[in-house]
Amino acid sequence: MKAKPVWKTDHQSQLSLLPPSYDDFVAQNHPVRIVNAIVNRIDISSIEVTYKGGGTSSYHPRTLLKILIYAYLRNLYSSRKIEQALGENIHFMWLSGNIRPDHNTIANFRSGKLKGKFKKIFNQVVLLLAQQQVLNIKDIYVDGTKIEANANRYTFVWGKSIANSRERIKKQLKELWRYVETVYAEEEQRPNGPDNFEAIDPEEVSKTIDQINKALEGNKTDSKIKQKLNYAKRNWPGNIAKYNSQQEQMGGRNSMSKTDPDATFMRMKEDPMKNGQLKAGYNLQACSNNQFITNYTLAQTTADTTTLIDHLEEYKESFGHTPDTITADAGYGSEENYAYLEGEGVEAFVKYNYFHKEQKQAKKEPDPFHPDQLHYNLEQDCY
Question: Rounded to a whole number, what is the distance in angstroms from the first to the last CA of the chain?
């Protein structure tokens, strides 16, 4: 005879003599306890002073900071999803002390109270780990990676396109003035030409168009030229103002995203189909020690070479001194970087781009007729 299965009993409606504590459901080695212990030890007075006295009570910023950090640790970034977790996830309930701020409170704290202060909190955590000898901030390893911006990849501005548009307006202004010269070709008195054809300032462009219109008053003018002048008067000054604004936002960059002006278009890492991706993004620079990140900066340039000095200056501002040693790949090797590291007294283990090529060539027999192998006679200025 087949035995019947035995089911484990549940006690969904069973009352407890002593109510359980949230602490009973959180393992002693769970990451949420680490977040709680570390945030309890850092100084958040810079956030506390932003709150005004009086009125209704506020959620304590330390608790909100714990919630945000642990949410990020669990890949939760939406304020609505964080709000949901506070009512469903036992770890969030324990960490928050069972308070349930809504998504607006979480979003306002993140974008308002915490803005510009998170880096200082990060630095405090790094120093805390250094005091516990978990890491060493004197010896660092630097590398970078491209991260995609949360921006529309199809709304972009290119510096070269702006330059071409300016040049096109300048060329058309000159063509319009040449037409004026052809109209006055048979007359002795000719109108004075515009002082400046450069399409740089909206007022200058508008002034040049007005001079052309004034010069053509009372003369028979081609309808296409009139149409072009009307279009130029309506659009070109505004276009030049837009180009100036975009150029100012880009600074020294060659591109930017319209939906995230701080982002630059960069070649991202290849996708699984080996296709290079050109997307709006940032060049994230990070230094580490013992697999802990000790400093981070965001750069708008695509090459790592130009980011090292700013990254180390940020490091010096955060910790009051430069590191003793730095290790980085050949992407950071440049004469400017080497000079800076030497001036700051930093021992550098940074290769230059042609290091491996030179090592391979050193193993080969030298070419006796190469200029480097020939003896130079200084007196006769010859080899």
Answer: 106
Domain ranges of the chain: 22-134, 157-252, 264-358
Q: Are 312 and 327 within 8 A, CB to CB? A: no
Buried b (16+ CB within 10 A) or exposed e, 345-375: ebebebbeeeeeeeeeeeeeeeeeeeeeeee
Residues 7 and 111: their CA atoms lie apart, in Å, by: 51
Contacts of residue 43, defined as CB under 8 A and 6 or more positions apart, other chains included, come to: 124
How many residues in the chain?
383
> What sign for the dihedral angle of Cα 91, 97, 103, 108?
negative
Block means of pLDDT (10 residues each) for the chain, 383 residues, are 85 82 91 95 92 88 96 95 95 94 95 91 94 94 92 87 90 85 68 64 83 80 86 89 89 89 85 73 94 94 92 94 93 93 94 77 68 79 81
DSSP secondary structure of 164-231: HHHHHHHHHHHHHHHHHHHHTTT-S--PPPPS---TT-HHHHHHHHHHHHHHTTTS---HHHHHHHHH
Distance of CA 61 to the CA centre of its chain: 27
CB within 8 Å of 152: residues ≥ 6 apart: 257, 258, 259, 280
- Residues 153 and 264: their CA atoms lie apart, in Å, by 10
Distance from CA of residue 172 to its chain's centroid?
A: 38
How many other C-beta atoms lie within 10 A of the C-beta of residue 252? Answer: 8
- Please compute Rg for the chain using Cα positions: 33
Q: Are 287 and 142 in contact (CB under 8 A)?
A: yes
Which of helix, strand or coil describes residue 115? coil
CA atoms within 13 Å, Cβ hemisphere of 279 = 17
Half-sphere exposure of 110 (CA within 13 A, CB side): 18
Torsion of CA 162, 168, 174, 176, to 10 degrees: -120
Long-range contacts of 182-185 (CB under 8 A, 24+ apart): 183/215, 183/216, 183/219, 183/221, 184/215
- What CA–CA distance (Å, rounded) separates 198 from 172? 11
Given a contact cutoff of 8 angstroms between Cβ atoms, the answer to whether 26 and 90 are in contact is yes
Rounded to two decimals, the pTM is 0.77
The amino acid occupying position 320 is G
